[in-house]
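Late entry, evening session. Most of the bench is empty. Finally got around to the prediction I had been postponing all week. Sequence below, unchanged from the version circulated by S.P.
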Amino acid sequence: ISMSAGEMLVSKSLFDVFTKTLEDGSKKTSYAFKLVFQSDEKTLSDDEVGTVMEKVTVALNSKTDWQVR
């Protein structure tokens, strides 16, 4: 997350972990993160943060067995 988000990401924290057992006995785990973006130079627009979030999403989705929802 940090590598993809760049320097606008000033804080990240994991706030929830949920593990579900599927019918076949396998397990699926979901992680929820709080991300805080900030700039010392200006107020960030929704589009700017959206662009960074898209980079994070693409990077995480490129990992095997990972899916951003």
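Two things to note before I forget:
The chain has a mean pLDDT of 94.
The CA atoms of residues 14 and 33 lie 4 Å apart.
Will write this up properly tomorrow.
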